[in-house]
Write a structure and sequence with these properties.
The protein has 210 residues and is α+β, with helices and mostly antiparallel strands. Helix content is 43%, strand content 10%. It has one domain. The chain has six helices and four strands.
């Protein structure tokens, strides 16, 4: 049976994400805990076709419940990838507050947590082209759903966990932009056309999270 266009898009998005995970997150050791769950096949990948935050929210709720309910030995963590929505980092950053409220509403605060990656990620107080921002940059807007118990266990096994951020910045500064570009990390799926601008003359921008 021939694959549909949607199937081709999903396959391409997953290839891009796995390439980023293997070459950057694991290859550069940006997360010392990622390799084990990757090798054991405990990462659940979901490609959302949501085109707005309102469409994404119920999908996020579903994946949060599913992760909480499944055996950690089968699924330890979930990567929810959003290739067609929240392409602006400011919009994505605003959605993270909705995601935190959803976690609380589902009574999963303290059970799960949500980390985030975005192709335009920018730490507060940095320039857009600061190579350190690449520590949190992925090919597509991505929500990383983690178990609090797994995070606590990983931290216990890695006493220097507080130094990971500084070590990652040092790694990327040593690599440089040329080295990062050579990893070939990026989206191979064309971005959707921009949505029409809203009718208001100004819009609120949330604080960039660090």
């Amino acid at each position: 049976m021939a694959l549909s266009d949607s199937d081709h898009v999903q396959a391409a998005v997953l290839r891009d994400l796995r390439h980023w995970l293997e070459k950057a997150v694991i290859g550069l050791n940006l997360c010392p805990f990622a390799k084990a769950v990757h090798v054991r096949g405990q990462i659940h990948y979901v490609v959302s076709r949501a085109t707005s935050a309102d469409m994404l929210q119920p999908e996020l709720a579903h994946e949060l419940r599913a992760l909480a309910d499944v055996d950690p030995a089968v699924r330890d963590t979930t990567l929810l990838v959003v290739p067609d929505a929240l392409l602006s980092f400011f919009d994505f950053n605003d959605f993270l507050y909705q995601a935190d409220r959803l976690l609380h509403a589902l009574d999963l605060d303290g059970v799960l947590q949500i980390a985030s990656f975005h192709p335009q990620f920018q730490f507060a107080g940095t320039a857009a082209n600061d190579i350190g921002n690449a520590t949190n940059r992925a090919p597509y807007p991505t929500l990383h759903l983690l178990r609090e118990a797994s995070v606590d266990k990983a931290v216990q096994a890695f006493p220097q966990a507080d130094s990971i951020f500084e070590a990652n910045i040092a790694t990327l500064e040593l690599l440089g932009q040329t080295g990062w570009d050579a990893l070939g990390i990026g989206r191979s799926v064309p971005s959707p056309p921009p949505l029409p601008a809203p009718p208001q003359t100004a819009r609120r921008r949330g604080t960039i999270r660090r």
